[in-house]
Every structure is written in structure tokens, then in C-alpha cells.
UniProtKB/TrEMBL annotation:
Keyword entries, A-Z: Hydrolase
Residue span(s) of domain Non-reducing end beta-L-arabinofuranosidase-like GH127 C-terminal: 547-659
Organism: Heyndrickxia ginsengihumi
Annotated Non-reducing end beta-L-arabinofuranosidase-like GH127 middle domain residues: 450-543
Annotated TM spans: none
PANTHER family named in the record: DUF1680 DOMAIN PROTEIN (AFU_ORTHOLOGUE AFUA_1G08910)
A single GO molecular function term of this UniProt record: hydrolase activity
SUPFAM superfamilies: E set domains (SSF81296), Six-hairpin glycosidases (SSF48208)
Protein name: Glycoside hydrolase family 127 protein
One Pfam match: Glyco_hydro127C
Organism domain of life: Bacteria
């Protein structure tokens, strides 16, 4: 293990003091991490729900830590849960690593160290690490890759180990990861006797790229490239493994009918030009491709990333940054097919979209990636967690009717309130690691330019061309549009500072030391390149006026409807504020929207009100389903929008993002 250190593209020593985001960091540290630890140890007195109506989903308990104790020989028993249950522990560990970076906690570190010790005991001599196959079916190792999630779980441990090593310098964590990666390298590749294949769920590719960046062991980057370029080249690989399998039961029930596109294995990656299949798998694949393209200067792979990015954001993404249009396979469907009440929009999928966007920013300094990163973060991602940090959405709908969710089997995945935990619990720990790693998404560096991708109050320092620069950002975003950058350094130095003009800001003003700058954005950033002096200051004023959005006319679900945005937030109507039957509301043309901030509502939120009309349902409709002569009648009604991220934190009820316009 040859650990080397180099200047990363992101600035790791960022101190977030932002009022909005500090609250989330504290919730993760004080509530989510301890809560999730109790769940993983089966100590939480909670109800675990199936994410949809499916009797095959295990939902009695987590048992994740117990599985490791059994695999380590510390206890006797059978494996319980999904074959990918290990990944819940790994994502928890990664969240702990990032949280310790923000706020060091010796007791939490000792707890995490004990988990590392347990994993070392569970790891087999050749480096293999997977509780299901070690306990239940060691003879099927790497033999059912379409559904086994072995490399997926391995990837999540490697990512956690890299993060934990970077924060704590725990070499045991990294040593386990390298031994695991070496085991995979010994079993997969183009050489004779190795498996010429890949996992059904992408993740190992991302992790190996990160392990390479820490260790500088080229074989890990090469192995990631192998998995990426091998995918989709042999259409019979999964079928051959199934035919040769000697197991008596499926590793995961109901997977045999999935087409190769579900796994993004229908074509080689350079030939894929549309977002297909399971949404999380697709964005994990794309995130890995973008990172490997950056690390290996692979222009063809980067070109493929750009095609898939356009497919997602131009034709297959919800206005909230959600992706995945159908519950069947948690998957993309076709262009412009974006139903609001049967979609999936899994929390993990939007997290994966953020990974993809961030890795594209390494390659292309284009604000469209940061715009999407911000859209997903402020809307679908934080919608995935209740304000108490102990209830979670797997699915993030844009329209909900409680009765339909209860009685329509096709909408059983559309929850009205956030459950305490899921049988398939990928989202809660994924959300925890996403939020605690927020600091790395704020800035990126290209050559001698510092790019600002997110606006939140923080302080950081970075060496640019050998000069230490201290950068302080103060802002009232997301509720306001004022940003102030204060620059300090040891001596005058020349570098660039790029500030992003978000897509939601139609106008802007920028000042350098009090003097307005007349400069147009380049790829969405205004780049100020100069010799900076001590105590230089930039002030950016963004436009947070309310925006009224329409969807592409090909999106059938949203014809003659509008959605409301202010700053980075998409807004919605809730029954709590507007009574039942939200679908009967119409918003008149040219009616002004009014914004105000309510400190006592939902932890403090900006509220939008507008005078609208609501259709009256006449008594005659009680006795007939259709009519040719009943006229439409409307009553005036003031309606209230709240930010989408905080819906379902009060009483259960209807919710709607897209509203009929007059």
C-alpha cells in the first residue's frame, strides 16, 4: 500500500457555517448517525416498511451488524436481509468519516474503529468480503453477478475506507480495502483464468477510481477501466452465469426477466446515447465514467458521458432533479415520459446524479452541471429525509393522493408520510453520506481558477500556484441572493475566482471592492482573473424573484400546467394549507405571486401565496359520472406554496408540484 497525497480538484478543508446547511450537518451527526447505528444493530424500536407492495422484501429487521459478526465467527446464525445488506454499514461508516471531518467526536471514532476491527475479522484470507456469500453460499462467489451485488458492496466499502482514511488516517481501514480490491483484481480481467465480466449494479468502478487517487496504484484505475469497457460487450455473459449456476434458489427473486438495458449492458458504454434501465445504476455508471475519463484523459469516454448527460437533463429528468419514471425496475422509460404520481425519483438516484454532475465538473467547467447538482440537492435529496432526521422517503413523488397510494397497487411505492426505515434501506445511509460530504461540492479547481459551484456560508483555504489563499463566503442563499467573498492571502498573487450565475437568476450584479463589474458569464461563470490583494472583496447579487416554469409540450403529464421556483427551491401545494382536491385549482394569468418568510413554519421557510381559482363541484355531480351540460363554476381562493423539500412533515394529505394554469 503506497499512499500518496496530491492536491485534489476539490477543496477538502472547508468549514461550513451556513445556517441552512449547518442544521443538516448537526442532524446527521446528532440524530441520523446514532439512529442508523441502532437500526443496523436491531436496537431501534421502529417499524420497517417495504418500499412497495412486494412480499419478497425482507422487512423484519436490519441485522446488518449481526451478519458481520456471524461472518467473523463471533456468533452463529444465518444471514438475514438482502444480499446487499452490507452496504448499509459501509455507507454509515462513510457518513461517520465525513462527519468526523466536520466535528471530531472521539466516542464516534472509537465506535467506527470497532466496526473496522469487525470487518477485518469478517474478511477472508484472500481479501474477499461479503457476509451473504461467506455465511450462506461460498461456492457461488462471483458466479451470479447479475444479481449478487458482490462488487457493488465491495465498492461501497472501498469508498467508505478511503473517506475514513482521509479523515482519521486509519491504515487498517485502507488496508482492508486494498486487500479486497486485490482480491477482485485477481479474479477479474482479460487474462486467462479470470472472469471477463462485471457486476449487475455499478459501484465498484467509482470506488476503484477513488482508491487509485489515494494509493496511486495504477492497477486500481486499470481495473475500473476494465469493468467500464467490458460492460455491454458480451450479451450472453449474465445468461451463461445463470446456466452454469448450481444454486438452488435465486440470489434475488424476480431478476431473470430484466433486459440487459436494465443493467446498462445492452451496448458497450461508448455506444450508449440514452439513459436506460435502473436509474441508480445508470448514474453510478456515468459518475464512474466521468471520473475515469478525467483521471485517464479518456476523450472517448468523456464524449459518451456528455451524450448520457444530455439524455437525462434534456429529456428524462424531473424539475425537482428526480430521475426514474417507473416503479418497474426503478427505471427510466422514454423521452418526456415524466408522470407525476407513478414515477420513482428514488433518493439514491438523485444522489447519484449529483456524483455524475460533480465528476463532470472535473472535466468541463460548465455551470449546467452545477445547476443540476444544486437542483437535485435542494429538492429531491433533502426531500428524502424528514426534518427530524429519523424518517425517510425512498420515492420522491411530484403528486400524491393518500387514498390512491393506499388502494392502487401501482402506487404502493408512493408514500404519503416518510417511514422510519425500509426493508431495502439504501437511501437513508446514502443520504447521510451525501449531506456530510457537502463541503467537497462547493468549489472545484481547474488550473489556477477556483470555481464556486454552490452558495453557502463557509471558510476555506487553498494553495493556488504555491500561494495560500483564504476564502470566506457569506450568503443568505437559499432564501436570499446576496453573496460576499472575502479574500485573504500571505502576499499578492494572481489567480482566477469564478462565480456561478445560477439558471434561476435571470439578472445579477457583481462588484469588486465596491466597483461594479461589467462582464458576461462564460459557460455560466463570471471569471475574475487578476492579481489579488489582501482583503479584496467580491459581492454578487442574484435575482431570487419567483419563476414560473412550463414543461416541454411533449411531457403529457404537464400540459397546461406550471411549476413555481424561487432561488434553488421548487415549490408545491399541500392539503394542509389548501384543503383537498388540489387538482381543481387553477392559477389565473398574470396573477402576482407574493413571498414571505415564516420563521415558525417547518423550521423556518419561505412561503409563496397567490390568488387562484378552485373549481366548485356542484351537487349534481353526486349522481352522475359524466355530463354534457353542467357548466364549470369557480370560487376565488388564496393558495399557499411551500418548498418541495419540506412537504409531508405535518399531517398526511395531498401534494402537488405542477398546477393547472388558466
Amino acid at each position: 500500500m503506497n499512499v500518496q497525497h496530491n492536491t485534489p480538484i476539490h477543496i477538502h478543508n472547508v468549514n461550513i457555517t451556513d445556517q441552512f446547511w449547518s442544521r443538516y450537518l448537526e442532524i446527521v451527526r446528532k440524530e441520523m448517525i446514532p439512529y442508523q447505528w441502532d437500526v443496523l444493530n436491531d436496537k431501534a424500536n421502529i417499524t420497517i416498511e417495504k418500499e412497495r407492495n412486494d412480499e419478497t422484501i425482507p422487512s423484519e429487521k436490519s441485522h446488518a451488524i449481526e451478519n458481520f459478526k456471524i461472518a467473523a465467527g463471533l456468533k452463529e446464525g444465518k444471514h438475514y436481509g438482502w444480499v446487499f445488506q452490507d452496504s448499509d454499514v459501509y455507507k454509515w461508516l462513510e457518513a461517520v468519516a465525513y462527519s468526523l471531518h466536520h466535528t471530531f467526536d472521539e466516542k464516534l471514532k472509537e465506535l467506527a474503529d470497532s466496526v473496522i476491527d469487525l470487518l477485518e475479522l469478517a474478511q477472508e484470507k484472500d481479501g474477499y468480503l461479503n457476509t451473504y456469500f461467506s455465511i450462506e453460499e461460498p461456492e457461488r462467489r462471483f458466479k451470479m453477478l447479475a444479481e449478487s451485488h458482490e462488487l457493488y458492496c465491495a465498492g461501497h466499502y472501498i469508498e467508505a475506507a478511503v473517506a475514513y482514511y482521509e479523515t482519521t488516517k486509519n491504515e487498517k481501514a485502507l488496508r482492508i480495502a486494498c486487500k479486497l480490491a486485490d482480491c477482485i483484481d485477481a479474479n477479474f480481467g482479460n487474462e486467462d483464468g479470470k472472469i471477463k465480466g462485471y457486476d449487475g449494479h455499478e459501484e465498484i468502478e467509482l470506488a476503484l477510481a477513488k482508491l487509485y487517487q489515494v494509493t496511486k496504484e495504477r492497477k486500481y484505475l486499470n481495473l475500473s477501466r476494465f469493468f467500464l469497457y467490458e460492460r455491454g460487450t458480451d450479451s450472453s455473459f449474465f445468461d451463461r452465469q445463470r446456466q452454469e449456476d448450481t444454486g438452488k434458489k435465486a440470489v434475488i427473486e424476480g431478476m431473470h426477466h430484466r433486459p440487459l438495458s436494465y443493467y446498462q449492458a445492452h451496448r458497450p458504454i461508448l455506444e450508449q446515447d440514452s439513459a436506460e434501465g435502473h436509474a441508480v445504476r445508470l448514474v453510478y455508471l456515468c459518475a464512474a465514467m466521468a471520473d475515469v475519463a478525467y483521471l485517464s484523459k479518456d476523450k472517448e469516454m468523456l464524449s459518451a458521458c456528455r451524450k448520457l448527460w444530455k439524455s437525462i437533463v434534456e429529456r428524462r429528468m424531473y424539475i425537482t432533479g428526480g430521475i426514474g419514471s417507473t416503479v418497474d425496475g426503478e427505471a427510466f422509460t422514454s423521452d418526456y415520459d415524466l408522470p407525476n404520481d407513478t414515477m420513482y425519483c428514488e433518493t439514491c438516484a438523485s444522489i447519484g446524479l449529483i456524483f455524475f454532475a460533480y465528476n463532470m465538473l472535473k472535466n468541463d467547467t460548465n455551470s449546467s452541471y452545477a445547476d443540476t447538482l444544486e437542483r437535485a440537492l435542494y429538492n429531491t435529496v433533502i426531500s428524502g429525509m424528514a426534518l427530524d432526521g429519523k424518517h425517510f422517503f425512498y420515492v420522491n413523488p411530484l403528486e400524491v393522493n393518500p387514498e390512491n397510494s393506499a388502494k392502487d397497487p401501482g402506487k404502493s411505492h408512493v408514500k404519503v408520510t416518510r417511514p422510519e426505515w425500509f426493508g431495502c434501506a439504501c437511501c437513508p445511509p446514502n443520504l447521510a453520506r451525501m449531506l456530510t460530504s457537502l463541503d467537497k461540492y462547493i468549489y472545484t479547481i481547474s488550473d489556477d481558477i477556483i470555481y464556486t459551484n454552490l452558495y453557502l456560508t463557509n471558510q476555506t483555504s487553498i494553495h493556488v500556484k504555491g500561494t495560500k489563499v483564504s476564502l470566506q463566503q457569506e450568503t443568505n442563499v437559499p432564501w436570499g441572493g446576496d453573496i460576499r467573498f472575502h479574500i485573504q492571502q500571505d502576499a499578492p498573487s494572481t489567480f482566477g475566482l469564478a462565480v456561478r450565475i445560477p439558471s434561476w437568476s435571470k439578472t445579477y450584479k457583481i462588484y469588486l471592492n465596491g466597483a461594479e463589474i461589467d462582464q458576461k458569464p462564460k459557460n455560466g461563470y463570471i471569471i475574475i482573473h487578476r492579481e489579488w490583494q489582501q482583503n479584496d472583496e467580491i459581492i454578487l447579487s442574484l435575482d431570487v424573484n419567483i419563476q414560473v416554469w412550463s414543461a416541454n409540450p411533449y411531457v403529457k403529464a404537464n400540459v397546461n400546467k406550471i411549476a413555481i421556483q424561487r432561488g434553488p427551491f421548487i415549490y408545491c401545494l399541500e392539503e394542509e394549507d389548501n384543503e383537498k382536491n388540489l387538482h381543481l385549482i387553477r392559477i389565473p394569468k398574470n396573477e402576482p405571486f407574493n413571498y414571505h418568510f415564516e420563521t415558525g413554519l417547518l423550521g423556518g421557510v419561505g412561503v409563496i401565496e397567490v390568488n387562484a381559482k378552485k373549481r366548485i363541484v356542484q351537487m349534481e355531480w353526486d349522481h352522475q359520472l359524466y355530463s354534457t351540460d353542467l357548466p364549470e363554476e369557480y370560487e376565488k381562493k388564496k393558495i399557499t406554496f411551500i418548498p418541495y423539500y419540506c412537504w409531508a412533515n405535518r399531517s398526511p394529505g395531498e401534494m402537488q408540484v405542477w398546477i393547472e394554469k388558466e
